[in-house]
Design goal:
272 residues; alpha/beta; 2 domains; 31% helix
């Protein structure tokens, strides 16, 4: 009886272990689409540090900041990116292997989409995301100083966000206000020197699996730019967490029971 019990529990252990390792192997991707340049232009340390943690999987991986203005540590982003494993370059390397996350900074630090270096590398970046790579785009789909790169981002992300940009000029969404989730990760919002350049239709991005970290238009009831029917996300996070998930208690319980079963089975075999 003990041997039979041990064999059954050992099977449970195998199934639980296979499920656990399979779950751990699933890629975890964080994508942040920011309607502001709080990192490159405003040097908001808390938001830069939050971005670094997302991109690096909690400080465990390498991060590349792509920018055309020669930014480097230690001062970039108010020091929020001043960590080991962070490098800076004006373009993407031939291979993206070895990177946990990539940040596309707003060109010349402000106001328009940072995706220029992604043009022509759509397939590589799509594969990077599919494999668990993290992305951050400053002034997503902004056109104040250049093209929005909408087609490039649609190819990478799998949806076209351009029709869902509610505003793309000035500071029409100020003051930006962090959501409860945004506050948790260090986002502060505000209206200093123009925080919100792009305002997005949050209902669309929610349907894509994203959540707002900072919202705009909260003090503009009835505005034609910021309709009250659309809670407009100025910073959006999707499909990810800063750290890999821990096993649930139930999984650990199954693992423990399985180990007990193996012990019982081994004991029975030794008494044959």
């Amino acid at each position: 009886m003990a041997r039979r019990f041990g064999a059954v529990i050992s099977l449970v252990l195998f199934v639980a272990f296979a499920w656990f390792t399979s779950a751990q192997a699933d890629p975890i991707t964080t994508i942040i689409l920011s309607g502001s340049d709080t990192i490159s232009f405003h040097d908001i340390t808390s938001e830069a540090n939050a971005a670094y943690l997302f991109l690096s999987n909690g400080g465990t991986g390498n991060v590349l900041v792509v920018n055309n203005f020669g930014a480097s540590n230690p001062s970039y982003g108010g020091g929020g990116f001043n960590h080991p494993g962070v490098t800076f370059a004006p373009s993407l390397p031939a291979s993206l292997s070895g990177l946990a996350g990539i940040m596309f900074a707003a060109p010349d630090t402000c106001c328009s989409d940072g995706g220029g270096p992604a043009v022509g590398r759509e397939a590589d970046l799509k594969a990077f995301v599919a494999g668990g790579g993290n992305l951050y785009d400053e002034d997503y789909l902004g056109t104040a100083g250049g093209p929005s790169h909408a087609a490039t981002w649609a190819a990478i992300l799998g949806f076209d966000g351009a029709p869902h940009v509610i505003a793309d000029s000035g500071c029409t969404g100020d003051p930006g206000k962090p959501t409860a989730l945004g506050t948790t990760f260090g986002y502060v919002g505000g209206s200093f020197g123009c925080y919100t350049h792009q305002i997005y239709d949050q209902s669309f991005f929610t349907a894509q699996g994203f959540a707002a970290l900072v919202t705009g238009c909260q003090d503009a009831p009835g505005s034609t730019v910021c309709p009250p029917t659309a809670l407009s996300g100025t910073v959006i996070m999707g499909n990810g967490r800063a750290n890999p998930p821990m096993p649930e208690p139930s999984s650990l319980f199954l693992l423990g029971i399985g180990l007990v079963g193996l012990s019982v089975y081994a004991l029975g075999q030794s008494r044959k």
